[in-house]
Amino acid sequence: MSALPRTPQPVSTTVPKPQLYIDGKWVEGESTIEIAIVDPATGATLAKGRGASDAQVDAAAAAAARAFAAWAAMPAYDRGQILRSAAAKLRANADELARVMTLEQGKPFAEAKAEILGSCEIIEWNADEGRRLYGRLVPSRQSNVQVQVVHEPVGPVAAFTPWNFPMTTPVRKITGSLAAGCTCVIKPAEETPLTCLAIVRALEESGLPAGVLNVVYGDAAAISTRLIDNPAIRKISFTGSTRVGRMLAEHAGRMLKKATLELGGHAPVVVFEDADLERAVPQIMALKYKNAGQICISPTRFIVHEKIFAPFVERFANTATSLKVGPGLDEKTTMGPLANGRRATAITSLIDDAVKAGATIAAQGSAPEGGHFRGPTVLTKIPLTARVMTEEPFGPLALVNSFKTFDEAMAEANRLPYGLASYVFTRDLANAQRSAAAIESGMVAFNSARVAWPEAPFGGVKDSGSGSEGGSEGLEGYTVTKTVSLSW
Ligand code: NAD
């Protein structure tokens, strides 16, 4: 029997209503701020809700404070079981959650699903790592004294997450803090709260006690100010722009609260003369245009040896223009729209400015009309005076310049105040080791585009932030140390 021709199924654009979650209850926001979930591929409003009032923000912090003692006292094994169960629920529902993520954020369905499955691995790793928050015994000076160093949960945490990874970033902060025994109030980005709420639902269905996790959003500045001021909150964790991170860190510093900051980047990619271009280009190109370039570790400044500059640019430009830009729910799409109008406007302005400064457009892929689409673009020979050589583009824009000597390449790699991720392609071990030592960044990948692993710290230096998420370092960031001297 011959297979019937496949009839295209209509794409459902139904999404859940955005609500708040406070003290174990789903509630409507009570502020006058309206939250609209907008599909970046069409500009259509998919759902509306209201932001949190001051009283609701206070209630969320109070709930996290009340729930803290019992949650901190729960054995790490039992906390981990709740987290593991939530991961299983998210994994089982990955297709539906990916559809909602694509609608609220724009990324292609396959990327959204990969983000959900990758986030489940982070949850499971945090669940287990919570059981390994070991302290230590310090050799004592006296035979009747034992000196212990123990890690204790820091207390209720306020977490602030952006719109580019609506699941991974909230998962890192929620499950890192909960696994360490902290409670949490999270403010997801106003553009993409639905995916964060799905994490909460999975945890609630897995038996998370009321108050351990609370979700508020609305007026980002007012909410963050209120939470940082609240004496119950003992730590903040922020992912987003350097501009906002600096403001929140200053405030947290005045209040003497711990802060983990994962901020902007402008990642250099150094391609030495001996690099294997066949291997390098597809990998780094895929990461460049993933999520339409809206990734803090996105490869941005390509610093390519002059002898391989022309073949590199040719290969890169060909692959960039072969991308199919379109709505994320269209199966053929390999790059979706920008997540919001701010990014789309910014990208056009950065390209125009670079061209005015003397840069060449080596490739510019086409993009559909309507929505916030921009074609993947490759600029070459960009003068340092162009704004994009210092501002994080956060969009589908690759900047390719050439270098002659090792020192020149390293000077360019370290020229900016950012220091999040960097990438180096070379077959020479000595080159690799010299670069690893010279590059100022929190993460560096050689002959690969992967720097993020659940088991390893993820974070930056200089203006890219401080502290880590992921790895044992990530969990330690949610703890304080206590020295216990036992005498007999
Ligand atoms: P923005 O600086 O206005 O906001 C960045 C993020 O911080 C958003 O999620 C926003 O909701 C949140 N935010 C803003 N003000 C806040 C406040 N006072 N308190 C708490 N949270 C607050 O910029 P944007 O237009 O949303 O994004 C543009 C720039 O942000 C990008 O160019 C990029 O540099 C940076 N960004 C970085 C990341 C990252 O993963 N590090 C993610 C998203 C955006």
UniProtKB/TrEMBL annotation:
Enzyme Commission code(s) on record: 1.2.1.26
Gene3D superfamilies from the UniProt entry: Aldehyde Dehydrogenase, Chain A, domain 1, Aldehyde Dehydrogenase, Chain A, domain 2
Aldehyde dehydrogenase domain residues: 26-484
One of the record's GO molecular function terms: 2,5-dioxovalerate dehydrogenase (NADP+) activity
Enzyme class, UniProt record, top EC level: oxidoreductase
Family membership: Belongs to the aldehyde dehydrogenase family.
Name of the protein in its database record: Alpha-ketoglutaric semialdehyde dehydrogenase 1
Source species: Usitatibacter rugosus
